[in-house]
Amino acid sequence: MLTRASVCVCVCVCWWVFFLLIMRRTRKGLEKELGWMKSSVVKNRTVWEGVMSIVKVSVLVSRPVLWCITCWLYFCVAGVGDEKVWMQAPQEYYVGLFYVCFPLNLLVYAWNDYDDLQVDLHNPRKGNYLQGTKGIPNRVLEKVLVFAVLVNVAFLSYFSFSIGIPMANLALWFVSLCMFNYLYNSGPRLRRGPAPLDFVGPLGYLLVFPLASWINNVPHVPFPTIFFHVCIIIRSQLWGQVIDYNCDLDAGRQTTAIVLGITHARTLLVGLVAAEFFVALTCFDFFISAFSFICLLASLFERVLYPAKQPTLKQLIFSSLFMFPGALLLLWGVWNQPKFSGILGADYS
């Protein structure tokens, strides 16, 4: 019989094997695959083939390996602290989980890629399933973006008519989502700076919290959980800026990492992870605290060994391998933490 521990380990191991397989793929092979998809979208003659090509490109654009981020946020509200919960949960639970994994990420990253085409062409970490595509023409991304909007509207309509969430709430939620994306990717393009406004857009991830509460009819997360995730989101964004330091500098951006410099950006990163660890230590259990502690060690490790250098691809892979035990602990913690798992103890009979 499946237990919570065995499912946790299996999911993490499968995710990590997928990660390693993706990392082993050559850039040439990825570019060939993306090139086939680009040509198929443009040249296919039948409507069905065109739609399927858009779907294939959409999966790449949505960053499948990064689905774990929104999946984790969903579990923080509607966790699976008891195996009976996820085995007996209604279909709305799984529809909501799928929505935050694929359609939501597709809209966010398609919007991002559409306005970031030229910069991504010169970014060495782009062009894979982990960090996003590059080289896809805007005419293709336009179709993907339209597809993303339609799919999102369809799912939100389902949540309203099937679950009974007020349409006004969902409309306000979707407008807020689009506003975060507009501020970050279009209009003022806050991802380019000025600092620290470049952190505003990623905070839109927190919108998963109220949506998950509405879908599963559970209480909203408490303030410590929100603050904990604010720290995670900001330090993850800052870490990404350090990784993209040279590309952002060449593009004339004024991100927080550019303004501070890599050394001071890494110092700020250590401070943010330390604040996150303090919240985890005072509000959550051992597993959440252990995850933040491992992240703190990793940030200190990078600050000491290469304080003023943009990390290389090998260093990024090493950091990812270092973080894997933390990811296991985090997933285990969210399955067992009552303050995170809103559905814990719910009655689906």
Assess the beta-strand content as a share of residues.
under 5%
Q: Please count the beta strands (DSSP E, at least 2 residues each).
A: 0
Indicate the overall shape.
globular
Reported for the largest beta sheet, the result is: none
* Averaged pLDDT: 75
- How many domain regions? 1
What's the Cα radius of gyration? Answer: 20 Å
For the record, give the distance between the C-alpha atoms at the N and C termini, rounded to a whole number.
Answer: 20 Å
Compact overview of the structure:
The protein is mainly α.
Blueprint (SSEs and pairs):
Elements (H helix, E strand, L loop, with lengths): L3 H21 L2 H17 L3 H15 L5 H11 L5 H6 L2 H11 L1 H12 L2 H5 L16 H26 L3 H19 L22 H9 L6 H21 L1 H6 L5 H28 L2 H20 L7 H24 L13
Helix pairs in contact: 1-16, 2-3, 3-9, 4-6, 4-11, 6-9, 6-11, 7-9, 12-14, 14-15, 15-16
